[in-house]
Amino acid sequence: MNKTLLSGMVLGAFTLGAYAQDKAVSYEDIKDGLSATEFRKYGETSPTKVKTRLGELSFTQGGFAGGYPTQEAGEKLKRELEFQKACQSYIWAVPLVSYYNWFEAQREFGAKDGAIVQYKVFGAKQGILTGNGTTPYAIMFADLKTTGPLVMEVPAGAAAGVIDDMFQRCVMDFGVSGVDRGKGVKFIILAPGEKAPEGYDQEEFVIVKNTTRDVFVGIRALQPDAKEADAFLKKFKIYPYSEIKNNPKTQFVVVDENTPWGQWQQHGMAYWETVKKIVDHDIFSEREGYILAMLQSLGIEKGKEWNPTTEQKKLFKEAAIVGESMVKTITFDKPFRKGDLYKNTLWDRLMIPSYNDKDGDIEQMYKRAAFTWEAVSRGEAYYMEVPGLGQQYRTGYKDSDGNHLIGSKHYTLTLAPNPPAKLFWSIVVYDVNTRTMIINESKNPIVSGRTNPVKEADGSIVIHFSPEKPKDVDAKNWIQTNPQESWFTYLRFYGPTEKYFDESYPLQDVKLVK
């Protein structure tokens, strides 16, 4: 063959190969499933420009497989990596920020470490994530490194409660559904790595090893009469073990209904400022190591100053917005639902993570984030599914057409006769922004079996949700929504009956009035 012709053919082939490498291709066109020989050869022939969700990424000679990311692509990838780490760190910190903000609020109320703070009236509960207006709350936080081993004396009687770490994982239940079964118990609560006090009476005390430096205790007195419940609550004693011989007194603080406050996670950079405080303050186990490494690479490291640049602040701000949006998505459009009751309805289940985040060897970080975005605290007893005991929660974010609930429209919910609750049932409306009870002009976010709504002729109850009270609807059957915001609702059954668990009670969806 003519040497000139052969040279031209080789040059043409080379040119065509170079052209094929230089032409941008979709990531879907990158070859996979290659043999060892093909894989090695691909380091010479793979595309040098690849289209991805980040835009076009370019590579040096050898292309995607055999080349380096160019300087431009490398900078783009580094920024994306930082952003992804920040988004995942945001999701991880959701329960921590919620509890931290609540602890800070209680300090502002004048509560010291170990004080029991009471939220009795509706206005006092305005800052609690998806709190219930009919339930009196009693909450204790303590920094166990400040108090040292902390004694909690639980009196015998009708009470239920939980000890949580700051990830809102249950450490111990107490009361009628706890270790003491209502007979009373004395705990000594220890910080991570802390030893039990020398010489403590092992017959008298139960040791509780908390898994974070700060501890949360939620107490519910179960006496129907409010005065009796308050008197019973005063029998609880919480104090440092070091004061055991000094007749220690427990501080009780009552929150008034005129103090604006909220434990919700802040938007934007304020969220990261709280995360930095938590990282500096708390004690973390090895299970949190990967996330702490991500935060460290972003400049948030225990005991070290954090001065993000203007560009870093932009990244953190965007990650907070995207991270929050991700969490809201998995909260209000849960991808976790399976094998639950009432699958034929859009009423979701609240308690989606396990009480301690464990699913075998798997950590339920995303389920935990979805739950703790909208609610607070977990105990083993919360998962009780025994007719007549405990409570069951159904969460409603959508109408019967599958559209999210918004405040400017009119909806109805029909409860069939005899709701499956031995004690009582309730419907509470929350706004999406704060996830707390909606504050409306009517000053009422609740309809329940205790508010005596008007019944239909067949015994059913029709509840209305709208900005203005519909004509001829009794105010007891109406919850006012705010026209400029979205909302969701919880349907609670206290002392759920067998008809709930066997689904013989016909639960209906919220319906848009068209």
Topology:
Blueprint: H1 3-22, E1 25-26, H2 36-45, E2 49-52, E3 55-58, H3 63-66, H4 71-108, E4 116-119, E5 137-143, H5 144-147, E6 150-154, E7 159-164, E8 170-175, E9 185-190, E10 206-209, E11 214-221, H6 226-233, E12 237-240, E13 252-254, H7 269-281, H8 289-297, H9 310-332, E14 348-349, E15 358-359, E16 362-363, H10 365-374, E17 391-396, E18 411-415, E19 421-431, E20 446-448, E21 461-466, E22 478-480, E23 487-496, H11 498-501, E24 511-512
Parallel strand pairs: 1-2, 4-13, 9-10, 21-22
Antiparallel strand pairs: 2-3, 4-5, 5-11, 6-9, 6-12, 7-8, 7-11, 14-17, 15-16, 17-23, 18-21, 18-24, 19-20, 19-23
Helix pairs in contact: 4-7, 4-8, 4-9, 4-10, 9-10
Structural account:
- The protein has 514 residues and is an alpha+beta fold.
- The strands form 6 sheets. A 6-stranded mixed sheet has the order 8-7-11-5-4-13. A 5-stranded antiparallel sheet has the order 14-17-23-19-20. Strands 10-9-6-12 form a 4-stranded mixed sheet, with no helix packed on it.
- Helix content is 28%, strand content 22%.
- The N and C termini lie far apart (82 Å).
- The protein has 4 domains: 51 residues, no CATH class; 145 residues, Sandwich (Immunoglobulin-like); 62 residues, Orthogonal Bundle (VPA0735-like fold), CATH 1.10.3360.10; 179 residues, Jelly Rolls (Sandwich).
Derived from helix and strand composition plus strand pairing, the structural class reads alpha+beta
Outline type = globular
Largest sheet: 6 strands, mixed
- As a whole number of angstroms, the C-alpha radius of gyration is 29 Å
Q: Which percent range fits the helix content?
A: 25-40%
Q: What ranges have pLDDT less than 50 throughout 5 or more consecutive residues?
A: 3-19
Average pLDDT taken over every residue: 93
Percentage of residues in strands = 15-25%
Quaternary organisation of the protein chains? single chain
- Please report the first level of CATH classification, the CATH class of the largest domain: Mainly Beta
Number of domains: 4
Counting DSSP E segments of at least 2 residues, the number of strands comes to 24
Order of strands, main sheet, comes to 8-7-11-5-4-13
Give the terminus-to-terminus CA distance. 82 Å
Number of helices: 11
According to CATH, the fold-level topology of the largest domain is Jelly Rolls
Q: At the fourth CATH level, what is the homologous superfamily of the largest domain? A: Domain of unknown function DUF1214, C-terminal domain
